[in-house]
């Protein structure tokens, strides 16, 4: 896991788009405001993945909200990571859980939630939601409460 801005490799360089799921492109930098709890929201309105059965594309808006700990995800690396799902076969529910787990592993946020707003296919849309709070902290309780009250 890269964490110092001098170690960021994607900004200011030619962009290479991975053709399949690529968590290795994710990079982090140090949160300069660890004494504050605050929300960071990413909104990706052009997320694409493939149905693992039919190979047909699925389209969604992916929303990622998190309260950072010591590390934060660098936005260009997140964009490239989300793009890497374009040729990846996974169900909608799998996509949001994979994204959340990769980001938890990468930056160990205090709290994170990921929602997928998938466009209708066959007359039905799917909005999977998942979340995580650091175990043994108030954020773990927050995750339980937000999940129980999610609608």
List the helices and strands and how they pair.
Blueprint: E1 28-30, E2 40-50, E3 57-67, E4 71-73, H1 75-83, H2 92-107, E5 111-121, E6 124-126, E7 129-133, H3 138-148
Antiparallel strand pairs: 1-4, 2-3, 3-5, 5-6, 5-7
Summary, kept brief:
This protein has three helices and seven strands, in the order ββββααβββα. The chain has helices spanning 75-83, 92-107, 138-148, and strands at 28-30, 40-50, 57-67, 71-73, 111-121, 124-126, 129-133.
Query: Low-confidence stretches at least 5 residues in length (pLDDT < 50)?
Result: none
Q: Kindly, what is the distance between the CA atoms of the first and last residues, rounded to a whole number of angstroms?
A: 34 Å
The percent range for helix content is 10-25%
The average pLDDT is: 92
Sketch the topology as an H/E string, one letter per element: EEEEHHEEEH
Largest sheet: 5 strands, antiparallel
Structural class: alpha+beta
What is Rg? 16 Å
Portion in strands: 25-35%
Strands, total number: 7
Distinct helical segment count:
3
Which geometry do the CA atoms define?
Answer: flat
Molecular structure report:
The chain has three helices and seven strands, in the order ββββααβββα. It is of the alpha+beta class and 151 residues long. The strands form two sheets. Strands 2, 3, 5, 6 and 7 form a five-stranded antiparallel sheet that branches. A hairpin with a 2-residue loop joins β5 and β6. The protein is flat, with a radius of gyration of 16 Å.
